[in-house]
Amino acid sequence: xxxxxxxxxxxxxxxxxxxxxxxxxxxxxxxxxxxxxxxxxxxxxxxxxxxxxxxxxxxxxxxxxxxxxxxxxxxxxxxxxxxxxxxxxxxxxxxxxxxxxxxxxxxxxxxxxxxxxxxxxxxxxxxxxxxxxxxxxxxxxxxxxxxxxxxxxxxxxxxxxxxxxxxxxxxxxxxxxxxxxxxxxxxxxxxxxxxxxxxxxxxxxxxxxxxxxxxxxxxxxxxxxxxxxxxxxxxxxxxxxxxxxxxxxxxxxxxxxxxxxxxxxxxxxxxxxxxxxxxxxxxxxxxxxxxxxxxxxxxxxxxxxxxxxxxxxxxxxxxx
Length: 320
Prior knowledge:
Helices cover 54% and strands 5% of the residues. Helix 4 runs antiparallel to helix 5 and helix 7 (115-125) runs antiparallel to helix 8 (134-144). A hairpin with a 5-residue loop joins strand 4 (199-202) and strand 5. It has 2 domains: 4-102; 107-320, hpI Integrase, Chain A, CATH 1.10.443. It has helices at residues 4-14, 20-34, 47-56, 62-81, 87-95, 107-110, 115-125, 134-144, 149-152, 184-196, 229-233, 236-245, 254-273, 280-286, 294-316; strands at 160-161, 166-168, 175-176, 199-202, 208-211. The model has no long low-confidence stretch (mean pLDDT 91). It has 320 residues and is mostly helical. The protein is globular and about 75 Å long.
């Protein structure tokens, strides 16, 4: 445990140029982290303890980890200078890598094994909620199927091909099909019902029926006939608030939904044709890579493929 008076002194010295809100958030970050291992004195913390502590945090990106570790490192240096820390702890913090931390549990919060698991998670959270969240639900399904939000706002109602039970990509005009799963027909029927709906019900305003704005675009609301990317992205905010209230242990992030679908498609391809790990052509097809140099591309592909393999370990093989 760290004495509150010591923590107060560090915060006072380190937050001179911070707003009050930033100062409180900064103190909460430090307090929450070191309270994860209250039984170990600060100076006695070692790398194994740090790994255990970070594994309990919701650190699901390497950039977030680097930023967080930088703040912990600054605090540890100050503590050492004040005579409270140890040089071993400073070395262990410096040596700690993102890959050291167990992130497996995050896959059950942010990722979806297949489109049926995504559907089931949304159905559980939206039970008895009517059609209020149908715009989000549609966008989430289309994201899993591989349509980027930046393209999705241009999707027309006519891009749902009811006769062939498929979806036309709004930009590339590529034909996209829902995987042949048990819920295939139910999911496609839902998309058609959303397309043809004139209104949605909502708990807002005391509960009422709100007519959708008249539109040729698939994704719309009672306010807007053509949602912007920002408006569409924000539809996940009330959904995640609802998920927290329902204690659903689910967080809907657009990028993670997209990656879930991408990883599913890679897995299906590999089951039929073999591993793409060393197939640069297929890696380039599946993964978006902005690197121009071949060496940098290979490094990026290696990282992305390892992330895919972790998904398979956590979401496919663990449920086999």
